[in-house]
Amino acid sequence: VLSTSTGTPARSHRAAHPPHAPAHLFDSLIATSKDMSASASALVAPSAVRGLASDRVVRRAGARRRCVAVAAAADAVKFYKYQGLGNDFVLVDNRDSSEIKLSSERCAQLCDRNFGIGADGVIFAMPPGLVQKDEDYSMRMYNSDGTEPEMCGNGIRCLANFVAKMDGADPKAYKVGTLAGLIQPEVRADGQVSVDMGEPTLDPPKVPCTFEATQDGAAVRAKMEVDGETWLVTAVSMGNPHCVTFGKEGECDEEGIKVDSFALSHYGPMFEKHPAFPAKTNTEFTEVVNRNYVKMHVWERGAGATLACGTGACATVVAAVLEGRTDRKCTVELPGGPLEIEWRESDNRVIMTGPAELVFDGVVAV
User: Which one, 66, 104, 105, 183, has the greatest CB density within 10 A?
Assistant: First the structure.
């Protein structure tokens, strides 16, 4: 990281740079400038030589410092760190180019919480036209492991807030093209972002998953073997695949999962890579508190355990309604805080509402 500013003060990451990461560009630039300045000062110190030659040395040193500064600007990208309920992202305004400014490998480095900025993913605000011509802009993203997901619910809230602040726009709704289709977030006057996440996909091959449909064309309470145990799961796509479970067969209708003591790091990877989900899957382990309130911990595909997942919260409510566990309007409590989810019966669309906040900004080497 070359520099940071605004929001919550960021700790320095320079001392911890790994050997494989880009060299300390900023530090070396400062050192180079200081060395050149010192050299110039020595050459023009009081002596018999103070004429045209010393003036040329000063001009040359100044020109070299300016060239170094220009090179630094050309090899650096401005970033903004945002979080939505602790699900955090590095955001880049990429609307001036159709080419993503950072490679997937560089994004994975920047997401590292010891040797980078630290994030669950890197999101790029791209030019419109990914899905349809009348978009306001489009979204591309890399997970912390360098893979590219279709979209991200918490991420798109952060993106909408980010673009609104960048453009100085009043509260409004946007049309955003994603690899999951058109998504429509609305930045509200109270700082919350409400997102029309579209209709859930329930047809098993389109999730995609290998389960047979068990209820009205959907895989509801399907049996899945994990670690020698049978779990009941419901498969939902919100533009990306989700496996929602309320517990093991014979237990989920009684005590079920208690998320606060659940072994997420043990079960999460096994669910993510289960062969029933050929594109891997996000998994939501869910505890029902009442018909309008659930608690959920998530293991995200390509990111692991995170504090929140917007598409996961939406999929959880869809699955809970299909299983008869909750009403269509429900609060989903995640480790990072609550999201308000409504699966509208009138048009089959899922609406998600929650916060998105700027943490800090800065400049990073490409």
Answer: 183
CA distances from 108 to 3, 21, 206, 209 (A): 19, 11, 28, 27
Is-catalytic flag, 309? yes
Active-site entry in 158, 209, 309, 314:
309
At residue 111, the 3 state secondary structure works out as helix
Residues 282, 298: Cα–Cα separation, whole Å? 7
**Distance, C-alpha 250 to centroid of its chain:** 36
Q: Who's near 42: CB < 8 A, 6+ residues apart?
A: none
Active-site annotation holds for 158: no
**Residues 152, 243, 314, 330: which is the catalytic one?**
152
Q: Give the pairing of strands 193-196 and 357-365.
A: unpaired
Q: How far apart are CA 172 and CA 194, in angstroms?
A: 10
List pLDDT tens digits, range 188-230. 999 899 999 999 999 999 999 999 999 999 999 999 999 999 9
> 124-162: per-residue pLDDT in tens?
999 999 999 999 999 999 999 999 999 999 999 999 999
User: 189: which DSSP letter?
Assistant: T
Residue 70 main-chain phi, psi, to 5 deg: -65, -40
Length of the chain: 366
CB 342 within 8 A of CB 351: yes
In a 3-state reduction of DSSP, which class is residue 219?
coil
Closest CA to 16 of 35, 38, 29, 1: 1
Instruction: Assess contact for 232 and 273: CB atoms under 8 A.
Output: no
